Amino acid sequence: MIRAYARLSKNYPLVHMFNILLVFSILILCTYQLLQNNKIEYAFGYIVALFPIFIFAKASTYKSKYLGDR
Questions:
Q1: So where does this one cross the membrane (predicted)?
Q2: Which residue, 22, 34, 43, 62, could crosslink 6 as a Cys pair with Cβ 3.0–4.6 Å?
Q3: Total of domains in the chain
Q4: What is the mean pLDDT of residues 10-21?
Q5: Would you say 30 and 45 are in contact if contact means Cβ atoms under 8 Å apart?
Q6: How far apart are CA 59 and CA 16, in angstroms?
């Protein structure tokens, strides 16, 4: 999965940027809701965003090592 996402991010950088913006938007929205409403339910957005952030980090490492992206 990490190798596939690394290839996708190299071949389609706009899709990769859209994915990053989507995850960042989820984090910002959940942070705002958590601070504004003081309800712990909005912390679920952080849990949802952890998996894509992990994939982004591992794919970046893979891309720099094996796909020659600098």
A1: 12-34, 40-57
A2: 62
A3: 1
A4: 95
A5: yes
A6: 11
